[in-house]
Amino acid sequence: MSDDTVVVWDESLLAYDMGDHPLDPVRVELTVALARELGILDRPGVRMVKPEPADDALLTRVHHPAYLAAVRAAPRDPLFAGYGLGTSDNPVFDGMHESSALIAGATVAAAEAVWRGDARRAVNVAGGLHHAMPARASGFCVYNDPAVAIARLLDLGAERIAYVDVDVHHGDGVQQIFWDDPRVLTVSLHETPLALFPGTGFPDETGGPGAQGSAVNMPLPPGVDDTGWQRAFHAIVPSVLRAFRPQVLVSQCGADGHRLDPLADLNLTVDGQRATYRALRALADELCDGRWVATGGGGYALVEVVPRAWSHLLAVATGDPVDPATLTPLAWRELAAARRPGQDVPLRMTDDADPSYEPWQPTGEPNAVDRAIAATRRTVFPLLGLDPHDPRD
Question: Measuring CA to CA, how many Å separate 73 from each of 78, 110, 125, 143?
């Protein structure tokens, strides 16, 4: 297997543009520009790959043919309604099918490169559209690129795929698509569905008949900071992945858990997000011979957060992490200021936060985070042969 990292990128990925909408492609544009200015994309072993659109045969591994027809037709019909399209969350836009298929094709290209051994790791920062359902757009997502890529991996012969979603919103689309498939473990850490879209992701969602334990959900209370997030991540994710023994790790790395994000209520920092990416890579190295497919996802602090978070992701995937104290390059700051006048442009790659944490223990007076951890462990750990009360599991 090559030790290279593939970064799937082309400016045409910016065509997934819903107009005056929170999911603005400028966040992806500024991410790639920052990573380039920091030298991340010029590292030895980094290969830039131009994506091709996913064809109907790939897309219909996940989505219904009638839904594809609707996505194609909607931009030509000013009165179109249905399939979750034409709403404020999912407005119809020109080239909707083509741009959505290109994002799916980019994540598929990343997955194929990793599975075939052309690269050990691969990243598509434009991907991560995890809410799309088989026959319905949802949560800013038209086609579910992580699910299409996972389906492609199964077709190529993968027998155990772990999907870990660290977006602030529950990874509901991927979970539903593979609900009955014991070959795919879906793990999602997210703000509680009692407070946030999409209203799913409770601990008792554990997989369908014959696949019990294949869905793992870790809902967290509003206001959780890096310390609580890291405590929850490390109390759940390594244990369930080790029990499952995946051959490849697919992750959705939404940056919308950050304290500045306007659409959610967690208090993470880019330092904590960087720590999560490092943990994901370490788990891929430990369990999957390094095979890691990473995508972007949500993130609506377009200048202040997403470009820094995902540049850290790209750095972790391509080699050494970027020192948090690193200054953002002047050329990037000028670009960011020009693209989004009036927004604060960060001067450094850090929020000056310490993401260290105390490991979970089943003792003492539990706080809200520990109660959430205990609920998830009690519900799903026995289904995976793990002891919910043993911190070594």
Answer: 10, 29, 27, 15
Neighbour-count burial for 257-281, b at 16+ CB within 10 Å, e otherwise: bbbbbebbbbbbbbbbbbbbbbbbb
CA distances from 133 to 126, 149, 274 (A): 18, 14, 29
- Report yes or no: 240 and 378 within 8 Å, Cβ to Cβ: no
Tell me if 382 sits within 8 A of 388, measured CB to CB.
yes
pLDDT score of 72:
98
Does position 4 have pLDDT exceeding 90, yes or no? yes
pLDDT digits (tens, 9 = 90+) for 12-57: 999 999 999 999 999 999 999 999 999 999 999 999 999 999 999 9
Q: Which residue's structure tokens are 């591994």?
A: 61
Q: Hey, what are 386's tokens?
A: 């793990």
Output the pLDDT for position 57.
Answer: 98
Q: CB of 171 within 8 A of CB of 188?
A: yes
pLDDT at 298 over 90: yes
What DSSP state is assigned to residue 285? Answer: H
How much is the mean pLDDT over the chain? 97
Residue type, 82: G
At 187 the pLDDT is 99
Closest C-alpha to 253, from 224, 221, 275: 275
Q: 3-state DSSP call for residue 166?
A: coil
Please give the model's pTM, rounded to 2 decimal places. Answer: 0.98
Q: Strand 46-49 and strand 5-8: pairing? A: parallel
Q: Which residues are catalytic?
A: 131
Q: Are 178 and 150 contacting, i.e. CB atoms less than 8 angstroms apart? A: yes
Structure-token pair, residue 158: 């993968």
pLDDT, position 365: 73
Pairing outcome for strands 5-8 and 121-124: parallel
